């Protein structure tokens, strides 16, 4: 049940005005949405980097201590303006447009509860479009980067409202971690 609040408005030279809110007792509150499982493992569904073959990470993921606290909610990958930006895994475009003057593309990853974001990107895809791993979703914009004098792509990963490390989408061998494995070539 919500508590009632009494509002008193004081204006110089005028009588006191009292405003009372509506009675909230009979208004049912919606059930809270379940919190996303931020601690659940992230499947390594990525098939490649969003830009380049193995771009330098200019700034890594730094999770904030609180929801609105300081941190870095993604990774910044060095990329020259005009470079193609690729989907790291198959999915469906949730958003392709401008936010606060920057081009943003967001892709819901197939078979997961995850979505990736890329910015600043001039989109070459539309909302609802299906993309495959490695498909170009846009190009790096020359302006709008928060990487100072360098141009970069800010790559983010979310599960619900929880930010996660996008590098966790990539298999260890793409990150230069772990041994290389040779697989047999099938006979033709």
TrEMBL record:
The keyword NAD does not apply. It comes from the Bacteria. Residues 71-166 form the M23ase beta-sheet core domain. Pfam families: Peptidase_M23. Gene3D superfamilies: Glucose Permease (Domain IIA). Coiled coil: none annotated. Keywords: Signal. PANTHER family: L-ALA--D-GLU ENDOPEPTIDASE, PEPTIDASE-RELATED. This is M23ase beta-sheet core domain-containing protein. It comes from Streptomyces rameus. The lineage of its organism: Bacteria, Bacillati, Actinomycetota, Actinomycetes, Kitasatosporales.
